[in-house]
Specification:
By secondary structure, this protein is an alpha+beta fold. It has two domains: 87 residues, Alpha-Beta Plaits; 59 residues, 2-Layer Sandwich (Alpha-Beta Plaits).
């Protein structure tokens, strides 16, 4: 299965992937409409870690684990694995207990903007974008979408 990987040595820490992710999942037609919404109403499903003075930055996103503890720990059955191995969330089943948030060893699952359900990277398959937006717009090609 193709997954998103990050080449930490190439990451500039620009956070553009966060904005592109938020835009791809916002339903908006223009990115400038995100102004004032990122971090409050719209939360990106990828997050860049590393401070301004740190030499290495890296993006944290869902790893679509082979033995995903978030799937086995979901009390509502909202998280499942596709035949291809992708971990997906059914927001209609999610009860907002956020057990998956606590279980994810990578911190890649977070409460959605409305606070009523969890959200995670779905590789832009749920929003019609196709290739993950964070990958397509990374200026330094630090984020790649490939099978390893």
């Amino acid at each position: 299965m193709k997954r998103i990987y990050v080449n930490e040595e190439w990451c500039l820490g620009c956070h553009l992937c966060e904005y592109e992710c938020a835009f791809a999942n916002s339903g908006l037609d223009k990115m400038f409409k995100l102004k004032g919404k990122v971090g409050s109403e719209i939360l990106p499903r990828i997050q860049v870690e590393g401070g301004e003075n740190e030499p290495i930055h890296f993006a944290v996103n869902c790893r679509h684990c082979t033995n995903a503890v978030c799937v086995t720990g979901c009390i509502a059955g909202a998280l499942s694995k596709t035949d291809e191995g992708m971990v997906v969330i059914d927001k209609n089943k999610c009860v907002g207990c956020f057990t998956c948030v606590l279980l994810c060893p990578f911190g890649a699952i977070m409460p959605a903007a409305d606070g009523k359900a969890a959200q995670k990277c779905m590789l832009c398959t749920d929003n019609g974008v196709g290739t993950p937006n964070c990958v397509a717009h990374c200026p330094n090609n630090a984020i790649v979408y490939e099978e390893r």
